[in-house]
Write the structure tokens for this entry.
Amino acid sequence: MRPDKKELLQMLSLEGEKELQELYRRAYAVKKEYVGTTVYFRGIIELSNICTKNCYYCGIRSGNPDFPRYTISLEDALAQAEWCYQKRYGSLVIQAGERADKAWIDLVSELLRGIKQLSNGELGITLSLGEQSLETYQRWFEAGAHRYLLRVETTNRTLYRELHPADHDFEKRRNCLALLRKAGYQVGTGVMVGLPGQTYEDIAEDILFFYDEDVDMLGMGPYIPHHSTPLAHLVEGFDKMQALTQGLKLIAACRIALKDVNIATTTALQALHPQGREMGLLAGANVLMPNITDTKYREGYQLYEGKPNLDENADESLESLAASIERVGESIGYGEWGDPKHFFRRQKSVAECRMNDE
Ligand code: 5AD
Ligand code: SF4
């Protein structure tokens, strides 16, 4: 059933510790019923900080000359994937700035084939590499990726225009979600919450968009200002706790409204509070994406201020992450893909429609 906008607005505008805890409890009960309390790990490899786009909120946008650009070598990226496989992470995410040139498309294709080979096809692969042509999406799908995350950032078209240069187009981005679906991917999107000028009404519309697009996965997080962006004036006066609460409320409202999708508890939450990701799990998220990028590259991938640079690649920190997840009463789905239940329900209803048509 399409979520009720009034109810969404009620949830998103809740305040007061007691009321918020009640909202998170409600979301957790829905999560337990629809997707269970197993957390799936996806190790993130930040493959390159080169980006052809210039989103005004982002620290690695093309217009920021303040830092060196890198691309991880194929060999190093494969070594990181191998580590992921050894540690029994079920999947990994390959993330980078947006590029659509041939050398890049080839590098990603080769990496995908290499990862499939080194893991005997066992590591699931999610891509988060921006807007591409159908042909490129298909090529990467054939090379082994099966999930794709493409955040639309905000569905308020006016706000989208204010936060991006004129050549960034919301409708093109939205159409990419359709191309991804056509290519066979499990499709994820998401928005940022707490953008300058964004209202609860906008966020309620974002959630309705997720429902209408029938997405399988969500990766959302609070907006965190960065000093070398056109929005640098927002760094001073930024309220971390308020941003954290907005992020948690959004997760909870999405879990209650959309039920069986996979929802990531994102690094932006951890940037705001050391336990932010665990809080996200308790508010309804069920996927966690530890950063496994080699620490020597991490400085170069600062999308926002204070992005945690912890070495989750080290065995001790993996152990402490596992312990803190277990402390909040969840278990980790080692070696499992943890595909979104929503995807299979969607596939089933497509198959049923086809059968009825025949
Ligand atoms: N704060 C929070 N998230 C950000 N992103 C980019 N810049 C910021 C920021 N300043 C997010 C966007 C993008 C993803 C890769 O990172 O949602 O899609
Ligand atoms: Fe590039 Fe993504 Fe940053 Fe936009 S948000 S500048 S597309 S890395």
The chain has a mean pLDDT of 94. Residues 51, 53, 55, 58, 60-61, 97-98, 130, 303 surround iron/sulfur cluster (ligand 2) (CB under 6 Å). The domain at 5-357 is CATH 3.20.20.70 (TIM Barrel).
